[in-house]
Amino acid sequence: MNEKAANEKAVIQKNAIEARNIVKTFGVGQAAARALDDVTVEIRQGEFFTLLGPSGCGKTTLLRLIAGFEMPTEGTILLDGQDITYLPPNKRPVNTVFQSYALFPHLTVAQNVGFGLEMQGRPKAEVNDTVARMLALVKLEPLAHRKTNQLSGGQQQRVALARALAPSPKVLLLDEPLSALDLKLRKEMQIELKRLQVETGITFVFVTHDQEEALTMSDRVGVMSQGKLQQVGSPKDIYTKPVNRFVASFIGETNFIAARAEAGKVHLATGDTIDIAGLSAGGNVTVTIRPEQLRLVDKTETGAMRATVKSLVYFGTDTHCYLSLTDGSEVVARLQSPASGDAGLTPGQSVGLRAVPGAAQIVLD
Amino acid sequence: MANPSLKPQRKRAFSVANLPGFTTIAIVAFVALYLPIITLAAYSFNASQSVAVWGGFSLDWYAKAWANDQVKDATVRSLIIAVSASLIATAVATMAALGTTRRRSFKGQTFIYVVINQPLMVPEIVSAVALLIFFSSIKVATGYTGLGYLIIAHAAFCIPFAYLPIRARLEGMDLSLETAAADLYATPWQTFRKVTLPILAPGVMAGAMLAFVISLDDVVITEFVKSGGQDTLPTYMLGQMRRQLTPEINAISSMLLALTVVLLTLFFLLTRKNDQ
Q1: CATH code of the region A253-363
Q2: What is the DSSP track for A176-189?
């Protein structure tokens, strides 16, 4: 298993997409808005790459630039090392799954799936073979001759996927394809998408604003905000080592505590100290600690922060405990609910609070 | 309960369509619209010479109209003009609709919209006089006196009728379909042929049908533009009515009506099948 993983790593080092110093502005003069502000990103061959960010952060614009629907104001885009910046969309070996699916209403499911191959001028027999294979891949064979408006949302989604995969693109772009589905179907499709990506070995570039989708499906995630790429890394990296306040707060829940840095540790305003290995910089910093990395301990324990329980919210598997520190700042701790469901805490109670070693991180503002 | 004004007067849901007088006005409107047409059709079967006094049932007037060479001539001419004009108008209107909806709004868009719809706004008699003067100078210069003038004139005033339904269909169309086609390796021409046009088809058909009916029906512009011996069915009928009024006119009108009804029914069935 490890050897296989290592082999795969070696294979995927080549870049499928390289976007260099991309700037995209909409409008002119005073009204011009920068949708993308000097974005540079490398997407490796065969990986599941997710662009994650709130709406309006520029992630869809970047996707449309890769697809060729828009041209960048500045910068270059390479596909397998070749410059495709100004190539029209029909000349790029890249296909898109649209947010609205954009299925052709006048064609059947099979005709939709075969559309790209037909436009490429592939022989009829090859088109039919590939369409059959694609319909089998997304488990839609029985519906091949239906019109697309007779299908459910989940089925339409599968047709859109099969249609985009049929011409074997070098890169598949997915623009929030799951956002129109209900929760249960969305979970199913997440697994399905991941399976398709592994089976076909095609590079997937997935755009979403849903951090859970990004974490569960991706090999690597690029977090975007205000037209800038904030951080690129594996889901674990961006969750456990966020580079800045935005990334830390956009992915999962977290606590921010103002502190003063010293070698190896930080001093909080409360007078408490937290050890942070390898810390050298001095001055004022922001410390982030995930709620699930905080533990309640006895208030007399040495080195523990003193805190008062403000309120408790029961979430089933865990209980969120809102606390205030001695300087009045508030933090939340996520405690696993005991079998009885009662965490044994009452508002107003004094407790000790301790971060799991290594959980506290310094972030940029 | 004691307050009588709170007692429901009638079992009717609250709706502005339940205001008093709606039913009456609807009935009056229907009578005014359809009674004359029914009368016209009924008297086309009249055995007597009069269009107002019933003299028993007969199909004579249909036979007479059918055998009338002038009617045949005029009908053929009307159909040639209507088919040619509606084809030209639909092609132009489709391009105009694509041009005005498929690009970001540009300066002068409203102006172009007004220009395209000019025949709807300028009084027909003004266009007729203008065309008469314009074409007569061309006639003098070229010596050509064929049906071309009528076809061009009809095509011109049919354009807005073809344009409006096509434009409505285009505006309702999901633009991402064309993007998807481009993404799937279709050239702009293939995108138009394989995606835009098939989806647009019901609108194009509706536009062509409307243009056809409008052309078939025209009197004013035809009367002014036509050269001698170029009577269309409507101008022939007008000419006949100036001389003598017989139920032959009723018979011709009824046949024209039947043709229109058949066309509209066909069109309705076609578009319904297309939307399923």
Answers
A1: 2.40.50.140
A2: STTTTS-HHHHHHH
